[in-house]
Design a protein that fits this description.
The protein is an all-alpha fold and 181 residues long. It has 2 domains: 31 residues; 100 residues, Cytochrome Bc1 Complex, Chain D, domain 2 (Orthogonal Bundle), CATH 1.10.760. It is built from 5 helices and no strands. It is rod-shaped. The mean pLDDT is 90. It binds heme C.
Amino acid sequence: MQLRTIIQLMLSIFFVIIISYLFRYDVTKPNHEFIPEMVHSIAYDAYSPNPNYQNKKTLQLPPKGSISLGFMPEFDGSDVNEIMSPLTKDEIDLERGQYIYNNYCVVCHGETGNGDGPVTKRGVPPPPSIISPKVKVMSDGKIYQIVSKGLGNMPPYNVQINRKDRWQVTHLLKMMNNEKK
Ligand code: HEC
C-alpha cells in the first residue's frame, strides 16, 4: 500500500469518527451547537432598559385606539341614542331582566319602579319614577347608558352587571313602560 492511500484511509476513518461523534444522538444531553449566538437571542426582561425603542423601555404601551381582546368599548363618544341592543328577539329574557332588576334596582326604584324602594325610607332621596312618559320615550341606548354609567345619585352598574344583563334590564324597563297605559 502506498503511503498516500494509507493517509487517505486514516483521514477517512478520522472523518467518520468526528462526524459520528458530532451526530451522536443522546436525547438526555444537549447537542453540539455551532454558532450558538443565533440560537440564543438576547431576551429583554419586561422592565429592563431596551435600546431598540425610542423611550428605551422594553414594555411598550399599546398603540392608541387598541382594544383588548374581548373588550369592545361600549361608548365610543358617538350618539348613545343610536346604540342598539345586541340581543335578538329570542335572546331577550324578561325573566332574567326581572331578576337583575330585583337584585340591583328595587332597593331604590321600588318593585313597581315608582321610586319607593326600601332605602328611600331610610334617608336616601327617592329617585324619580322610571315608569314615566320620559323613560317611555327614552331610547334603549340611553337607558343602557344610564344603567352602565349611572346618573346623578345613581351609581354605575357596568362593573356589577355584565353587558348582556344590562340589556336584559333595559328591555324589562321598556316593557314595564309599555305595559303601563
Ligand atoms: C342607589 C339608588 C339607585 C339604584 C340602585 C338604581 N338607581 Fe336608577 N336612579 C337613581 C336616581 C337617584 C336617579 C335619578 C338621577 C338623576 O336624575 O339625577 C335614577 C335614574 C334612573 C333612570 C332615569 C330616570 C329619568 O327619569 O331620568 C333610569 C332609567 C334608571 N335610574 C334605571 C335604573 C336601573 C335599571 C337600575 C338597576 C340596574 C337602577 N336604576 C338602580 C337611583 C338608583
